[in-house]
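Hey L., structure's done. Input below.
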Amino acid sequence: MAPSPRAFLRNLRVPMPWRLRSKLVARNNVRKVTRVRMCCGNPGQPGC
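Output:
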């Protein structure tokens, strides 16, 4: 099941410091690319 754009944007609105949010977005997107998957395995986190 592919994540929806709405879920992606909702995950970015999670209240947390911007440094942590940007770190999670980068890490989760790298996981998606290196594993060739649509989800990083951390649903609910920014970037997943």
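The chain is about 55% helix and 0% strand. The helical segments are 5-12, 18-35.

-- N.
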